[in-house]
């Protein structure tokens, strides 16, 4: 494993991703983790990330005592990036001068002449490179035995190394694409300098996870899982099912807030294609009766969350009755970014509020259930989960589905969701919109697209008759992670066709609007 100690740089995840893209397993942990934690992971290479701190600041984060002795005794290669480089310099006896401000920028660097071996000892790496440098503190005196192997055009230290002791440092970010030779340098460092062999494959992840689950879940234990119809819970359940077979019990809840034919479609996938043991609970009545007359968005979400828990609780009791034993484990489709985000290093600017999704998760649990968690995807990124899904024979179409919120259509109908036939109208409009997007072959360009039902009526004229019907809005956004988003630029002809189709075929709609707000200031969903 290539272990990354995170000191709060916004690019730390990117390093992990870049290394995994070389088929090398890499993990990020908090940069102040204990030596025991590091030893337990038994890394071959350790990368110290960048970060917003000055090594001189009080409480500046650092690797644990005994770290240097440990890496040297084990022959572990250490690469410091930006702040990481300065930590190496300072802790090994060099001098880091305090800079006035910290900023990032493009810069040209030049690799020293006659560099043989080491960071740049590969003829494919250009001598002159454009890099993404972080200015700030500066290494002005190197520890003994270190040499400067690249400098910026202004003469600042850009790369250092001590090959004998296996310490290396880059003052710039090789992981960002602005650094032209960055990937080549990382590749050369890991394969040639550190002698790592590639071989981390999704197939191995699958095998390993199955082994872990088999070892964890005893032969008498039963496991439950709430399927949302989304990618993560489906892949997680399929994986656990492969490990323990029908001692896994899944539930899919139809809360009456699902999209057009969604229940039929996902149940078909679960049962016929994935052969998962799934109980489908139709709880439409329970959810809608509790939502009747409720208009406040947060209240709607709370009611839905609570009802999910009730139903899940009932399901767990049913399983207990059936198998004669309380279920011991719960499967959750937690992903790697959720795990890292929930324990951010100090000063990283990342806060717990980024974990907005935790309260979104369907598996919000009754406290007295005391289930242990199985989170088989917790080391993977979203695209890796998709890859794993493919190996598990889940169709690509399904794996590329846009996200759908836990509270379902309730957050796409401002106000009382039970009023009139708003749910029914919304389902039809949404289906036309999504199908048109699929037909136009732009589905994969869009992060999320959906229709919104507006609780207002406007006047129209249809078939020579005056109508007083509902307006609907269309929303489509592009995004990396849902945290920020841009509205998607459809072409006018497409919008014209969709609008006509909707008004011609959905009774009760005579006006179609397009939502052209980004996030921020709006959110993606309307509530
Ligand atoms: P917002 O509306 O906050 O949404 O900009 C960002 C992303 O999160 C999804 N979302 C949810 N997902 N349960 C979920 O599982 C929820 O309660 C929930 N609320 C929003 C939203 O669809 C978008 O992808």
Automatic annotation (TrEMBL):
Residues where ATP binds: 228-234
InterPro entries: Class_I_gatase-like, GATASE, GMP_synth_C, GMP_synth_GATase, GMP_synthase, GMPS_ATP_PPase_dom, Rossmann-like_a/b/a_fold
Keywords: ATP-binding, Glutamine amidotransferase, GMP biosynthesis, Ligase, Nucleotide-binding, Purine biosynthesis
Transmembrane segments: none
PROSITE patterns cross-referenced by the UniProt entry: GATASE_TYPE_1, GMPS_ATP_PPASE
Domain GMPS ATP-PPase: 200-401
Top-level taxon of origin: Eukaryota
Catalytic activity: XMP + L-glutamine + ATP + H2O = GMP + L-glutamate + AMP + diphosphate + 2 H(+)
Gene Ontology biological process terms, A to Z: GMP biosynthetic process
GO cellular component terms attached to this protein's record: cytosol
Pathway: Purine metabolism; GMP biosynthesis; GMP from XMP (L-Gln route): step 1/1
UniProt GO MF annotations: ATP binding; GMP synthase activity
EC number per UniProt: 6.3.5.2
Gene3D superfamilies (alphabetical): 3.30.300.10, 3.40.50.880, HUPs
A Pfam family of this chain: GMP_synt_C
Coiled-coil regions, chain positions: none
Listed PANTHER family: GMP SYNTHASE [GLUTAMINE-HYDROLYZING], GMP SYNTHASE-RELATED
HAMAP family registered for this protein in UniProt: GMP_synthase (MF_00344)
Function statement: Catalyzes the conversion of xanthine monophosphate (XMP) to GMP in the presence of glutamine and ATP through an adenyl-XMP intermediate.
This protein's name: GMP synthase [glutamine-hydrolyzing]
Organism per entry: Nicotiana tabacum (Common tobacco)
Gene name of the record: LOC107818590
